[in-house]
Amino acid sequence: MPSCSRSQGLALCQVGRLVSCDGSSDTTAADKLKEANIDTAEKLMGNFMVMGRSEEKMAKWLEDVCEVRSVEAKKISAALVEKGDKICSM
Questions:
Q1: Alpha-carbon gap, residue 47 to 38, rounded angstroms
Q2: CA 55 – CA 2 distance, rounded (Å)
Q3: Contacts by 49-53 with C-beta closer than 8 Å and gap 24+?
Q4: For residue 80, what pLDDT is reported?
Q5: Is there a contact between 55 and 80 (Cβ–Cβ < 8 Å)?
Q6: Domain 6-88: what homologous superfamily?
Q7: Is the pLDDT of residue 54 over 70?
Q8: pLDDT value at position 81?
Q9: Contact, 80 vs 58, CB < 8 A?
Q10: Domain map of the chain by residue range?
Q11: What pLDDT shows up at residue 6?
């Protein structure tokens, strides 16, 4: 997995840490998000916040718009819920 540099902000290579690929596809969730112009974790979190912090809506959006596999979409959404809860409780 490529390393993240600070100049990238919170790079999507960190998304790879949220999901484990079973090797069935050469295209990763991070690649699919980049294709959908979601190239930073900030953009990903922003979309999640716009969707009302709904885990279900985010997972569906990741599957439908970004074409991320269901298992990966659910893992990413669950991680966003956890992070969103921390941000919103500050």
A1: 9
A2: 27
A3: 49/84, 53/80, 53/81, 53/84, 53/85, 53/88
A4: 92
A5: yes
A6: Barrier-to-autointegration factor, BAF (1.10.150.40)
A7: yes
A8: 93
A9: yes
A10: 6-88
A11: 45
Q: In residues, how long is the chain?
A: 90
Distance between CA atoms of 57 and 76, rounded to whole angstroms?
Answer: 12
Dihedral angle computed from the Cα positions of residues 65, 35, 51 and 25, in that order, rounded to the nearest 10 degrees? 60
Q: Which band of pLDDT confidence, cut at 50, 70 and 90, is reported for residue 12? A: low
- Supply the Cα-derived Rg of the chain in whole angstroms: 12
Are 15 and 25 in contact, with CB atoms under 8 Å apart? Answer: no
pTM: 0.71
Q: Of 7, 32, 10, 6, which is closest to residue 19 (Cα–Cα)?
A: 32
- pLDDT at residue 48 greater than cutoff 60: yes
**Spatial separation of the C-alpha atoms in residues 7 and 50, rounded to whole Å:** 25
pLDDT digits over 59-71, tens only?
999 999 999 999 9
